[in-house]
Amino acid sequence: MFIKKDKNLSSLNSRDYAYQLLKQNILEFVILPGTLISENELSKQLNISRTPIREALKVLQTEGLIDILPQKGSFVSKIDIQQAEDGILVRKAVEIEILKQACVKFDKKVWSHLEKIIQKQEKLISQEIFDVMKFYELDNEFHRLIFLGVNHEHIWTKLREMAASYDRIRIIEVIDQINLDIVLNQHKEELEIIKNGWVDKIDQFMQNHTHNFLKTIPYMRQKFPNIFK
Question: I need a surface site. Which of 99, 104, 114, 147 has the fewest CB within 10 A?
Fold first, then answer.
């Protein structure tokens, strides 16, 4: 099993290093769903003991990225479509309320950061070598900042805890470069809604946003059948 290392994580303690590196490799599909995770092999590759690796695997299990099966071992979980659909429905309900609050009162100090994220994503799309994870990270940061702008960043953190399957489908979208222009246009539309206080447009906007995600799932399941439950 190959692990892509990241020198930016080298300052972390052993458990956090193992956790962040494994999560990064799982989300980037370096380690594919269904792969058996060998603690001994990881210990040798990462040059750390098995204890922090075992602790990291338990955290990843709570996030839905690892299945720990008695007498069999630890496996990268396959993508659970039902879990992904549940996650997007919860997020839709929460984001509708967040956007309504943002239309009434929004921290303007956050605004320039949101506009810069859109500019960075536009630049990424135009580049010959497309940085998948950078685009994905900017997308997450865009939404986190909207929650921050109404002083509810902790809710965003809670939503992230149930986003394992949803996130991996989103990353496949980015890898396959599906709907990237739609994502950018939705970000721009979201800012216009907040800027102009268009509360009456929020429900339809979120309905379209959810629909665009859900309609890609059958295509992905057909194209990548081995990574789904």
Answer: 104
